[in-house]
Amino acid sequence: MWRMFIKPEKKQPKRHVPTKEEQEEIWFRYFYETHPRLELKEWGRRLRVFRFCRANADQTGDRDRLMAAFRVSSREELMEICDHLGITLQSLPEIDAASAAADRFRIQEYPNLKQPGHLKLFNLPAHVWVRPGKLVITISDADKPFDVTPRTVKAVETFETKLGFLTERAVDPPLNDKHCFCPKYYPEYFA
Description:
The protein is α+β, with helices and mostly antiparallel strands. It has helices at 20-31, 37-46, 75-85, 97-102, 150-161; strands at 51-53, 65-71, 106-107, 110-114, 117-121, 124-131, 134-139, 170-171, 180-181. The strands form two sheets. Strands 1, 2, 5, 6, 7, 8 and 9 form a seven-stranded antiparallel beta sheet that branches. Strands 3-4 form a two-stranded antiparallel ribbon. The model has no long low-confidence stretch (mean pLDDT 88).
């Protein structure tokens, strides 16, 4: 005769599930951990196009940065914006559509052009990427690439004075979530 032994289940300790208020408190503690509210409010007042974007703690390698995005509706507009910023777009050889879609260094909408990537804009280290319908510029501190410092903000202020007609094409917010310190998500600081 076979005997079957069933192992009694161990009781799992009760796990605390944070309330909505606790989740908000955790978020605000994280968001203002590196830069206090008054500092971010001052940055928001000083910068017209660029926005402070807090690193996403869930993504490895993400960093704090200043971001701006500009609307692009055609290849001619993309070329005009890049010329104004001093960015040279490199041409790539023609390939079939499936291969072009798999190549992440090609601009999706214009597969014969290479993504700009890491470069210098007005002597600032920047990352420029063309997404569907917009060109996104990301700037962090040169010496502390995972942070934004007052020196970075001052340099970007100067950069903004050189944008000219591009300020009218700015997309606000450049990053459409609560990681972006902008009027949409933090209206109390921009009133």
